[in-house]
Amino acid sequence: MLVPWSTAAWLTQNRLTFPVNPCGFCYHRFASSFEWRFMSTSAVLVLLVGPPGTGKSYLARRIAERFPMAIVETDEIRRQIAHPPTYSPRESGRVYLTAQRRIERLLREGRAVLFDATNLYERGRKKLYRIAEKYHARLLIVRTTAPEPVIEERLRLRKLGVEPLDLSEAGWEVYSRMKGELQDIRRPHMVIDTSRELQPALESILRFLRNEQ
Ligand SMILES: Nc1ncnc2c1ncn2[C@@H]1O[C@H](COP(=O)(O)OP(=O)(O)OP(=O)(O)O)[C@@H](O)[C@H]1O
Ligand SMILES: [Mg+2]
To answer: Which end of the chain is less enclosed by CB atoms within 10 A, N or C?
Structure first.
């Protein structure tokens, strides 16, 4: 089916809707990559990017409440294969490999998939871009951010275990180690400040998922 629509076109459209970034999110690097393609309308990959505590899993849950998606979460996989987690490169390698295989299987089935992981490195993200292309899945990359004092407070509360749905054990130490590791995302993407009102960004993501103009 010819879909006159792509991530870049969608970003263009939504940038026009929110030209002055009033809601804590903005768009990057989309202008030159507009393209019209043959693609499947059902397989979709939403790729979250952001250090611990920036609100990826919270956002993932908000999205999944409104749109049926398979969530592949590295923290869930990490809990299955590492006791206790060390967040070492070796452990992360195993976790990401398992996640990539799950994503590939789900996209092959034409499912909508959200990958909830820090995804800090472009090399790792490239593997996911290739998987999305292989299954003609529409790809949306969303980077989450929040001011550092907000992250610090979130991670302090995480240690107290106040949020039962929070599977991550990453604390301030892990955040401090990882925050400098985030590599530039070389694809069109959204940036969402999750300390601000999420609703406008959420609606944009849902429009993308529903393939609405
Ligand atoms: N927009 C938000 N509004 C209210 N609370 C939030 C928001 N975003 C995140 N939080 C809370 O902050 C804490 C950390 O957020 P979250 O678990 O989503 O971070 P994360 O990016 O998934 O971290 P990790 O990489 O460690 O999994 C959670 O307890 C979550 O409920
Ligand atoms: Mg998380």
So the answer is: N
Question: What is the value of pTM for the model shown?
Answer: 0.85
Q: Which of 57, 87, 159 gets mutated to test ligand 1 (max ligand atoms within 8 A of its CB)?
A: 57
CA distances from 70 to 21, 73, 91 (A): 29, 10, 23
Residue located nearest, by CA, to atom 30 of ligand 1: 58
Q: CA-CA distance, 21 to 111, in Å (whole number)?
A: 31
What does the mean pLDDT of the chain come to? 85
Domains of the chain plus CATH, in order, are: 2-42+56-207 (3.40.50.300)
Q: Give the Cα separation of 44 and 111 in Å (integer).
A: 7
Asked whether 73 and 117 are in contact (CB, 8 A), the reply is yes
User: Average pLDDT of 168-193?
Assistant: 95
* Distance (Å, whole) CA 95 – CA 11: 31
Q: Is the Cβ atom of 163 under 6 angstroms away from ligand 1?
A: yes
List strands edge to edge, sheet with 138-145.
Answer: 25-28, 189-193, 138-145, 44-49, 112-116, 70-73
Contact assessment for residue 103 and residue 129, using Cβ atoms and an 8 Å cutoff: no
66: Cα within 13 Å, side-chain hemisphere: 14
**107 CA → ligand 1 middle, Å:** 26
What's the rounded Cα separation, in Å, for the pair 194 and 210?
22
